[in-house]
Amino acid sequence: ETSGLDVRRPNSMNNYGVVLDDFGFQTMLTQFREKYMQPLAETLFANALQSVNGKLSNHHAFVIRYKVGEDLDLAEHVDNSLITLNVCLGLDFKGSTLWFRGVQGEEDALQKYWEYSHTPGV
Predict the structure, then answer these.
(1) What is the C-alpha separation between 91 and 120, in angstroms, rounded?
(2) How far, in Å, are 34, 72, 78, 109 from residue 11 at the CA level?
(3) Res. 21: pLDDT tops 80
């Protein structure tokens, strides 16, 4: 925030995040997508990949800072992506529980529900 650099926010909900491509990570993230995410998607989400001719062709990678008193209204939302990878970089925190629903477009998507709580070191 104090760098003086132009900062593009990753989405309309978070005021304390940046898009990683804007800081020189595009090549590394493209390689990560092609080497790791593509095979993972082919294994876990083969049906969804059919809608994009079997290829993950882009990414939208960003980091967000979460802090008590900031970004207080993070409503339930649908990511505008075929797949989402969420990685917690924090070491000392409380909370951070994620809730996932079923696959968008499937008949019972809203009835399915998964909860995940990040654990440092795991």
Answers:
(1) 6
(2) 24, 15, 12, 23
(3) yes
Task: Look at the pTM and tell me if it is higher than 0.85.
Answer: no
Q: 73: number of CA atoms within 13 Å, CB side? A: 1
Alpha-carbon span 70 to 66, nearest angstrom: 7
Which residue is listed with tokens 């951070």? 96
Per-residue 3-state assignment (H helix, E strand, C coil) for 46-61: HHHHHHHCCCCCCCCC
For residues 40-44, average pLDDT: 93
Find the length of the chain: 122
- Confidence at 2, pLDDT banded by 50, 70, 90: low
C-alpha count within 13 angstroms, C-beta hemisphere, residue 86: 11
